[in-house]
Amino acid sequence: MEQEVKAELPHGGKKRVCVFTKTKKIIAIVVCVLVIIVCFFGIFGLGAYKLNWDGAFTQKVLNTFSYPAAIVNGHFIKYSDWQYETTGVIFLNQKRGSDTTPEAVGQEVLQKMVYDELMEEIANKYDIKVTDEDMLAAKDSLIAQVTSEEELVKNVRDYFNWDVDTFMKRVIYSDVLRNKLETEIPKVDSLNKDAEKKANDVLAEVQKGEKTFAELAQANSEDPGSAGQGGDLGWFTKGAMVKEFEDATFALEKGAVSGLVKTEFGYHIIKLEDKKTEAVEGSKEPVEQVKASHILIRIKGFSDILTEMETSAKIRKLVAQGQ
């Protein structure tokens, strides 16, 4: 037997239903607005990335909002930054009469910006910083090249259509950071433990004397220019080699072998073959000269670390892909 059950809403029930209905409408409106916004930005992203839209309004949208030109290990390279630098280089090329296409410039600029991002990661990893003093020294060097700060301002404006601060930030900072990494990375001991061990092992073999220095150089040296000649570097004067190498070599007695000498290239074991003092072309006074051989065990330099970083990095380029 069926029973008919009637339930009455409690006092105020109709009001709660109305409120619930209004809430649903508001949520629906918000969702619709969000969908419209997503579609709006998606359309402009598609137009810029795939259809090469480059109209003024499209560029305004892309520059106003943080569209990425590339993503490097989760970090955005902003489309607006890429476009700004590309425009500056195109302006420079036009001044120089270069026939490089805008597309090629865009690719080169984006690759430079990817390397800039990787260099920042390397610098952060090894706590290497570009200081205000580094940037000031770089600016002073530029001023010295063009004779005055006013001339620097004029050149940057004429060739990039930028101000000097922008030029320092977008061009010179990258050069200063690269130079600093090239100088400081070889000093990071944690990167070179294997190289140091190998160098010590080779030095022990040299000191044993069971094989000649030339034989050990041919077998172990990582200097492609001298290993095949038994490490022979020929005669040279002061100023021809990096300071650490030069100081160690000129301090040796004829026939003596150094301990490990570290330079930006790696660990050296140096043998002084001979020395003499005599006149050389271009010098009024007799000049001390040495004839030396060496064994080089290379350490990791900046270019090695950058290559490793680039190989392992997750890089996604969204523009300038040879379109």
Largest sheet: 4 strands, antiparallel
Helix content: 55-70%
Distance between the termini: 77 Å
Strand content: 15-25%
Low-pLDDT runs = 1-7
How many β-strands, per DSSP?
A: 7
Rounded Rg: 32 Å
Total domain units:
3
* Rounded mean pLDDT score: 86
Q: How many distinct helices?
A: 11
**What sequence of helices (H) and strands (E) makes up the elements?**
HHEEHHHHHHHEHEEEHE
Shape summary: elongated
Structural class: alpha+beta
As laid out across the biggest beta sheet, the strand order is 3-6-5-4
Key structural traits:
323 residues, alpha+beta, Chitinase A, domain 3, 3 domains, four-stranded antiparallel beta sheet, 7 strands, elongated
Detailed description of the structure:
The protein has eleven helices and seven strands. The protein has 323 residues and is of the alpha+beta class. It folds into three domains: 52 residues; 127 residues; 107 residues, Chitinase A, domain 3 (Roll), CATH 3.10.50. The protein has a four-stranded antiparallel β-sheet with strand order 3-6-5-4. Strand 5 and strand 6 form a beta hairpin. Helix 1 packs across helix 2, helix 3 crosses helix 4 and helix 4 crosses helix 11. 20% of the residues are buried.
